[in-house]
C-alpha cells in the first residue's frame, strides 16, 4: 500500500491531501489523501455512501471541504468551491447522467458550455461543427453529428459527453473523472468505451474511474483506491490483486461473495405461470415464451434488440398485442388460468398479477418525491381505504413490514424516496411490486447503480420469492444478474428471440456470444 | 399522526408533531407576527382591533376560495389560469339570472354552478383530450370566459333589488359575531379539500401525477380521469367564489373576479411552503392568503395609494417561489420555475448536485 498522506506531491500529479467534509451531523469524508498520475486509470471504489461522490463534488467545485485539506493539480493548489477554477485547473467530469440535452445534436451539445460566436453574436456553426468533428475523430467515433442524441447509441452519447470534457477552450484536460460510465451502456458497447478510455489515458490524461462493476475495474484500472464510511482504506495496485481480496476490502468483511448461485432453490417446476404467443409492441416484432411457476427467466440482448421494450410490453403499458396469452391464477386462488388475445390492457395485466418494476435508472420508475410508505402503497391504495378515507395505520403496517423484510435503510417509512441511496431505492421498487402479490414479476435492470452489498441482498430476495412460487422475468443489461439468478435466458435480437440458453449455458462466454451473434451471418459491428 | 406512533412504537420511527416543529413547518408565522407588529406600531388604533381582523377575513374570503380552487389542479400538475375569469363569469351570471330573468336565487346559484361544471369540462377537453398545455389552454378559456361575461351583461354592472335583497342577506351578510357567510364557505372548502388531498385515494393520486405523471401511470393511476376531476373541482370552487363575490357587493360586474387570480397564485405557492413543506395544501393556502390579506390591509390603512397592496401580492408570489427554490423544495415546483445554476463543467445541473448531497448524508446515518 502506498501512503499518499506523507508522500511528497508528485510532479504533474493530481494530489489530494487530507481532504475532509462534514455535513451537519455527518462526517462524509475523513482526511482522505490520494495521488492520481497522468496517464493512469485510477479506480475509485466504495459502496453508496462511502464518500466517493463527496470527493468528486469537492474536486468539481460543488462542495467546499473542511479547512486543512488541499488539492494540487500539477503542483498548483486548487481553489475550492468554484467550478470554474476546477475547470481551469484541467479537471473534467463526466457524470453518470451525462448532462446532455437529448433533443440536441452532438454538435449542439458539445458547444453548450460556450459557443464560438461570429459577427452579430451569431453562433458560428461552421467552426462549431468542425470542432465537434475533430473531437469525435480524436475519440475514434464516426456518426451523424447533426442527429438528435436521443436517436444515437448509448456509447455515442457517452462519447459526446467525453468530447465535451475534451473541449480545451478553457484550458487543456489533465484529469478526467468518469462516474459509472457503463451504468446505462449495453454490454457490446462497453468494449468500445474501454478502448476510448485507454486512448484518453494514452494521451497522458489521468483518469479517475468510478464503478460498482469489479470486472470492469479489473480490466481497466492500474490502481484502485477504496473508501469506506468516508475514510480511506487504501490505494492498491491492481496487478495480482484477487477478486476475493478486493471484495473483502470493499465490504470490510471476509468471504462476502455476490456470485453464489442458486442458493436454496427448489427444482422440478412444471406448472405454467405465463405463456405468450407472438407478443408484439414497439421494437418487439413477435416473441413467444413461457415462464413456469417459481422460474427465473432472464432476457438478454443488445441495445435496440427489443430488450428495453420487453418489460413495458409484458405489462402492456405500451400498446401491446398477442395471438394468445395465458396467465396462471394468483397464488392461493383456485380459479383457472386467464386467457387473452389481441390488444392487451395494462389494468387487466395488473389484475392478473403481472407486475412491472422498472429499474431505478429509468426516471419514471417511481414518484420520487413520495415517501417510502406512499411509494409502496400507491399502486394498491384501494386496499388501505375504509369508505373514502385512507387508513394511515394500515399503510404504515404494510410499508413497515417491507422495510424490515428487505432491510431498507434507514428504517423510516416516512423518508422521501429521493433521499435513499440507489440500492435502497431499488429495494423499495421491488417491495412496491411484491406488495401487489405478483404471479409474474417483471424486473427491469434490478441492480443498475446498486452496490455489492445491496446487490447480493436483492439476489437473495429474488431467490426466496421464486422459492415461494413467484415467477420472474428479469430483463438486464448486466450479465452478472443473468448468471447469478436465472434458470433460463432468452436472447433477443431485432425484436425476436434468437436463442434460449438453458441453465448450464448461462456463462459469461456463452451469453456474450449469443448476444452478439447475428443469425443472418453478416458481420456485426456493434 | 400521533396515532401511528402508538400503533407502531417498536418499528420505524414515526414523526410526532410538536409546537416547535409546527413553527418550523410554518415559517410564515414569523412573517405574520412581523406584519402585525409593524402595522400595530404604525396604526395602533385601527389595525389592532377585532374589527380589523373581521374585515380582513371577510374581504379575503373570495381570494381564499380561489386560492383553494387552484391547489387541486396545481397538485395534479395542471395549471388552471381560468379561475379568475370563471369567478367573474359566475358573478355576472348569477346576478343576471336573478335581476333580469327573475329566477329565485337558490335556482340561480344551482344554474351558475352547473355552467361552471360545463366550463370545467371544456377545460378538461382542451387540456386532456386535445393535449394543449394547461398553461396555454386555460389561458385561452380565460379569454373566452371574460368575453362571455361582457356579452351577457353588455359590459354593465348588474344590480337590482332582488340581488341586494334576500340573496345578499342570506348568502353573504348573515353573520356570526361579525364573521360573514363567505368566511364559512372558505372554511368549509378548506376542510373538504384538505380532507380530499390528505386522506383520500384521489388526493394521494393527484399528488402522484403532479410529481411524476409517467411514474403514476406505471403504478396504475388513471391520470387522465384525475386531471379531468381536478379541473372540475377548480371550476366549481372558483364559481362559488364568484357567487360569494356578487353576494358581498350586491352586484355583478364583468371582470370583477379577475384580480383574484394573482392572490390565488400567491396564496397557493406560499401555502405550499407551509405545513406540508413542498406540497400544495389547503391549510397552508388559507394561512398564506390571510397573511397576504393582513399585509394588504395594513398597507391600505397607512394611507398608501390604492395600488400598493397589489405590489405586496406580487412580491409575495415571487418570494414564495423564491423561498421554495432556495429552501430545497425545488422539485415541488413545475420544472420551468426551478433555479438552474450553470455548473461550469456544463455536465451537471444544481438539481442533481443537491439531491445527490442529501443522498450522501442520508446514507451516512446508517450504522
UniProtKB/TrEMBL annotation, chain A:
Domain ABC transporter: 14-519
Record's keyword terms, sorted: ATP-binding, Nucleotide-binding, Repeat, Transport
InterPro entries xrefs: AAA+_ATPase, ABC_carbohydrate_import_ATPase, ABC_transporter-like_ATP-bd, ABC_transporter-like_CS, P-loop_NTPase
Entry keyword annotation includes Repeat: yes
Record keyword Aminoacyl-tRNA synthetase present: no
A single GO molecular function term of this UniProt record: ATP hydrolysis activity
Coiled coil: none
CDD domains: ABC_Carb_Monos_I (cd03216)
Pfam hit, one: ABC_tran
Protein name per its UniProtKB record: Unannotated protein
Species assigned in the record: freshwater metagenome
UniProtKB/TrEMBL annotation, chain B:
Main subcellular location of this protein, as a coarse class: membrane
Subcellular location: Cell membrane
Keyword Transcription part of the UniProt annotation: no
Pfam family, any one: BPD_transp_2
Keyword tRNA processing applies: no
Keywords: Cell inner membrane, Cell membrane, Membrane, Transmembrane, Transmembrane helix, Transport
Segments forming a coiled coil: none
GO cellular component terms listed in the entry, alphabetical order: plasma membrane
Transmembrane segments: 27-44, 56-75, 105-129, 135-155, 176-197, 228-247, 259-275, 282-299, 311-328
Name recorded for this polypeptide: Unannotated protein
Amino acid at each position: 500500500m502506498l501512503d499518499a498522506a506523507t508522500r511528497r506531491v508528485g510532479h504533474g500529479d493530481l494530489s489530494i491531501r487530507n481532504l475532509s467534509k462534514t455535513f451537519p451531523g455527518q462526517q462524509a469524508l475523513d482526511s482522505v489523501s490520494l495521488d492520481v498520475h497522468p496517464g493512469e486509470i485510477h479506480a475509485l471504489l466504495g459502496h453508496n455512501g462511502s464518500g466517493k461522490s463527496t470527493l468528486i463534488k469537492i474536486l468539481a467545485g460543488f462542495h467546499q471541504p473542511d479547512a486543512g485539506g488541499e488539492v494540487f493539480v500539477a503542483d498548483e493548489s486548487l481553489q475550492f468551491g468554484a467550478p470554474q477554477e476546477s475547470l481551469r485547473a484541467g479537471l473534467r467530469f463526466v457524470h453518470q447522467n451525462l448532462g446532455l440535452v437529448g433533443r440536441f445534436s452532438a454538435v449542439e451539445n458539445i458547444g453548450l458550455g460556450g459557443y464560438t460566436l461570429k459577427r452579430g453574436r451569431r453562433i458560428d456553426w461552421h467552426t462549431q461543427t468542425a470542432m465537434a468533428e475533430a473531437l469525435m475523430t480524436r475519440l475514434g467515433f464516426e456518426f451523424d453529428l447533426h442527429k438528435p442524441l436521443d436517436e444515437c447509441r448509448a456509447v455515442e452519447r457517452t462519447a459526446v459527453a467525453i468530447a465535451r470534457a475534451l473541449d480545451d477552450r478553457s484550458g487543456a484536460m489533465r484529469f478526467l473523472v468518469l462516474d459509472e460510465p457503463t451504468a446505462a451502456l449495453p454490454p457490446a458497447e462497453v468494449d468500445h468505451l474501454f478502448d476510448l478510455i485507454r486512448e484518453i489515458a494514452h494521451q497522458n490524461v489521468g483518469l479517475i474511474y468510478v464503478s460498482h462493476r469489479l470486472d470492469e475495474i479489473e480490466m481497466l484500472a492500474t490502481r484502485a483506491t477504496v473508501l469506506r464510511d468516508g475514510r480511506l482504506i487504501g490505494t492498491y495496485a491492481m496487478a495480482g490483486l484477487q477478486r476475493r481480496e478486493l471484495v473483502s476490502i470493499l465490504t470490510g468483511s471476509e468471504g462476502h461473495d455476490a456470485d453464489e448461485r442458486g442458493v436454496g432453490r427448489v427444482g422440478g417446476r412444471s406448472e405454467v405461470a405465463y405463456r405468450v404467443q407472438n407478443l408484439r409492441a414497439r421494437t418487439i416484432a413477435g416473441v413467444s415464451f413461457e415462464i413456469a411457476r417459481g422460474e427465473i427467466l432472464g432476457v438478454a440482448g443488445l441495445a435496440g434488440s427489443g430488450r428495453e421494450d420487453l418489460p413495458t410490453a409484458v405489462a402492456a403499458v405500451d400498446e401491446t398485442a398477442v395471438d394468445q396469452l395465458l396467465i396462471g391464477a394468483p397464488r392461493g386462488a383456485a380459479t383457472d388460468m386467464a386467457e387473452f388475445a389481441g390488444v392487451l390492457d395494462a389494468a387487466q395485466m395488473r389484475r392478473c398479477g403481472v407486475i412491472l418494476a422498472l429499474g431505478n435508472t429509468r426516471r419514471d420508475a417511481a414518484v420520487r418525491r413520495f415517501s417510502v410508505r406512499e411509494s409502496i402503497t400507491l399502486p394498491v391504495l384501494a386496499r388501505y381505504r375504509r369508505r373514502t378515507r385512507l387508513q394511515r395505520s394500515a399503510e404504515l403496517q404494510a410499508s413497515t413490514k417491507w422495510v424490515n423484510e428487505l432491510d431498507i435503510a434507514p428504517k423510516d417509512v416516512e423518508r422521501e424516496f429521493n433521499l435513499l441511496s440507489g440500492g435502497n431505492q431499488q429495494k423499495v421498487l421491488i417491495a412496491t411490486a411484491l406488495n401487489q402479490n405478483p404471479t409474474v414479476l417483471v424486473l427491469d435492470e434490478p441492480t443498475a447503480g446498486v452496490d455489492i452489498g445491496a446487490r447480493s441482498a436483492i439476489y437473495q430476495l429474488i431467490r426466496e420469492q421464486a422459492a415461494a412460487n413467484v415467477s420472474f422475468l428479469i430483463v438486464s443489461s448486466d450479465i452478472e444478474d443473468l448468471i447469478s439468478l436465472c434458470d433460463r435466458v432468452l436472447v433477443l435480437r431485432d425484436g425476436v428471440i434468437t436463442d434460449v440458453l438453458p441453465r448450464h449455458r448461462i456463462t459469461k462466454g456463452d451469453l456474450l456470444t449469443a448476444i452478439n451473434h447475428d443469425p443472418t451471418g453478416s458481420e456485426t459491428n456493434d | 399522526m400521533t396515532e401511528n406512533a402508538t400503533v407502531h412504537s417498536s418499528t420505524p420511527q414515526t414523526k410526532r408533531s410538536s409546537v416547535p416543529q409546527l413553527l418550523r413547518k410554518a415559517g410564515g408565522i414569523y412573517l405574520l407576527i412581523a406584519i402585525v407588529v409593524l402595522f400595530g406600531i404604525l396604526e395602533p388604533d385601527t389595525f389592532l382591533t377585532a374589527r380589523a381582523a373581521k374585515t380582513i377575513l371577510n374581504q379575503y374570503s373570495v381570494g381564499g376560495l380561489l386560492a383553494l380552487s387552484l391547489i387541486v389542479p396545481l397538485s395534479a400538475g395542471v395549471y388552471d389560469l381560468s379561475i379568475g375569469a370563471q369567478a367573474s363569469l359566475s358573478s355576472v351570471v348569477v346576478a343576471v339570472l336573478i335581476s333580469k330573468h327573475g329566477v329565485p336565487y337558490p335556482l340561480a346559484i344551482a344554474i351558475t354552478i352547473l355552467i361552471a361544471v360545463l366550463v370545467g369540462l371544456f377545460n378538461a377537453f382542451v387540456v386532456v383530450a386535445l393535449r394543449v398545455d394547461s398553461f396555454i389552454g386555460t389561458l385561452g378559456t380565460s379569454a373566452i370566459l371574460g368575453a362571455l361575461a361582457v356579452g351577457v351583461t353588455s359590459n354593465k354592472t348588474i344590480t337590482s333589488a332582488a340581488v341586494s335583497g334576500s340573496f345578499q342577506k342570506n348568502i353573504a351578510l348573515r353573520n356570526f359575531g361579525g364573521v360573514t357567510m363567505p368566511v364559512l364557505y372558505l372554511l368549509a372548502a378548506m376542510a373538504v379539500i384538505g380532507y380530499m388531498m390528505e386522506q383520500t385515494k384521489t388526493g394521494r393520486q393527484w399528488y402522484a401525477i403532479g410529481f411524476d405523471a409517467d411514474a403514476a401511470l406505471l403504478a396504475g393511476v388513471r391520470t387522465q380521469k384525475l386531471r379531468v376531476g381536478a379541473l372540475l373541482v377548480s371550476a366549481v370552487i372558483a364559481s362559488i367564489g364568484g357567487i360569494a363575490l356578487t353576494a358581498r357587493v350586491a352586484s355583478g360586474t364583468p371582470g370583477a373576479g379577475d384580480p383574484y387570480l394573482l392572490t390565488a397564485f400567491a396564496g397557493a405557492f406560499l401555502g405550499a411552503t407551509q405545513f406540508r413543506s413542498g406540497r400544495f395544501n389547503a391549510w397552508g393556502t388559507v394561512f398564506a392568503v390571510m397573511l397576504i390579506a393582513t399585509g394588504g390591509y395594513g398597507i391600505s390603512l397607512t394611507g398608501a395609494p390604492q395600488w400598493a397592496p397589489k405590489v405586496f401580492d406580487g412580491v409575495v408570489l415571487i418570494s414564495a417561489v423564491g423561498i421554495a427554490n432556495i429552501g430545497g423544495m425545488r422539485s415541488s415546483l413545475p420544472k420551468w420555475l426551478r433555479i438552474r445554476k450553470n455548473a461550469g463543467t456544463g455536465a451537471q445541473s444544481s438539481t442533481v448536485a443537491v439531491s445527490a448531497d442529501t443522498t450522501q448524508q442520508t446514507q451516512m446515518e446508517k450504522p
